[in-house]
């Protein structure tokens, strides 16, 4: 049995489950110092002075640094370096002004972690408070306080060019307005950010262990900012306890800890508290959408226009770029002839916005799905009927109204499979009966979403190498940097398939260490299999060809007659002639045994850099069934069914695990999660008592199905899957709740749909007499 397409249990799991992990926090070095940060308690203020004298005299304190002590003061590049905006770079320690609660103002180094906390508490910062702004729409007003006065506005980027033509909606019988907010959420990784930096006792090289999704870029950026050669810094991402996009960027603390370790010549470590994590690790989403959608009376969508206002927080991070992903994916799976969306990136006195699972796509899909539901309600049509009528059909690749080229897909097939799994018609009949017979009981709601998303992260190719060692083991090196995606298992499957191996345990996969794998694209944007997996696959295929060439010489057979079976090469159908991989590796190293034309320099290895020509577009259909208690507003998730198309499936178990994680995060945003600030910029959700994430008790067992439309852009036919669960589940869950409330006349609520919010909406509807008959 081959390994590709089969459910292979993850090789990573026994070590993780048995406590054999090593996180950055677990690294202990001789003479290690502990860092603690003095963080702003003000959302917006001028810094009139910092008094650290008391702290410097406390037991165990090695030093206290403020921005004035750093010359030059290192600056984080804007938007991760992808969009330079001079004057808006975030300093590693605030100078002159703080722009959000939690921004670092000073750092202390001590001999113990407890001394660090005490010393940080003894640093006094004199603030002159300034007015703060936390709402991105209000931040655009003329009188709004400015975060960067020299810029003259809180508007950082505006993609609007020309007004809509007068006839843009000419073919529409109805034009509806849709406005919604995708609330700010936190990545809430199980492992907070953690960094440890120490010098090598002999070479002088410094090593950084950091909880990162992209160690190679971390090294490159830190070295560029501090002006040091990359040979002087080794970056290792050990086990990483969740990233979800938030750990794909460089943070001020990583730069500063390298600088401090080089300054004091001793190891330095820091791990953020949960409150620091909620205050300073980038948040996600936080967009306001104002759309107009036009349709004919038969439900055909003819035009979509509108504006996206993207909150980027206090400093320009990836949030300013993600809004472009939102506008590009706005038409989703629908063949809408006229599409025109603009976007604005706006500063606020809040934590910066970065990538979070889906990164711009969930926002787009949520809005178009809500708009389609509104069209269906206006025209008294079933939401499924409107979707089916407007699906993109015909030949792929397909170019959308926003210029995106979809590689492959079958949106109707996904919807059909979902409706069959749900037994949709029976479900609707049951719902109708309950509405008539049980008016005072729980309200049943059914939500359907269809989606397409974008994956691949163009501009980041990937490295992969494969080598057969002389003991018969195989060494795989990959530029991807996994944090739960199962790369060790998946890459081993690819290699075993190509080399005819029957034991995945004899394949070693290494990554996440710049000394072993100097270049790599990292892991984000659902890119790993299509880039990293393809690089490993192509390298393994090249090694297999070398093996056949060598074995044909040793066995005196044509290369086409050589087959690779059970970790050996043999003449097809002649097991007695087999040569194990270990012997083949030894023969490759022996000039007397390999043929003169052997394609190699004494080894069985190959390296590949792969970069595909275009994005891939996973798609699917999700269904959520809920019961809402009208007396309390509580939502019970009855069923969650997901049908996803990620192209060719390599390992169904890994795909299912990724979908499960994505579903949970999407449902959490729909029903529970939300970062909240007071109007003055004070964060109100700084721990898991206030920021609600679901446990296994709140979510049901998921039902996952798949459709496969292979991508033509890589030899594996792969598309991304890590974020699809989030993209599809958010609108399905919200639609289900609103469907349950529809008889009461409640058709719109902002996420998260908390029991209190639902209960208040129900009570208001009762008091006004709203509702369908």
Structure description:
The chain contains 17 helices and 30 strands. The chain is of the alpha+beta class. Helix 12 runs parallel beside helix 13 and helix 15 crosses helix 16 (724-741).
Please name the defining characteristics of this protein.
single chain; 773 residues; alpha+beta; 30 strands
Rg over CA atoms, rounded to whole Å, is 28 Å
Strand content: 15-25%
Q: Give the tally of β-strands.
A: 30
Low-pLDDT stretches: none
The mean pLDDT is: 96
Q: Report helical residue fraction.
A: 25-40%
State the secondary-structure class: alpha+beta
Briefly summarize what is shown.
With 773 residues, the chain is an alpha+beta fold. The strands form 8 sheets. It has a 7-stranded mixed β-sheet with strand order 3-7-1-14-11-12-13, with helices on both faces. It has a 5-stranded mixed β-sheet with strand order 9-17-16-15-10, covered by helices on one side. Helix 12 (487-499) links the parallel strand 22 and strand 23.
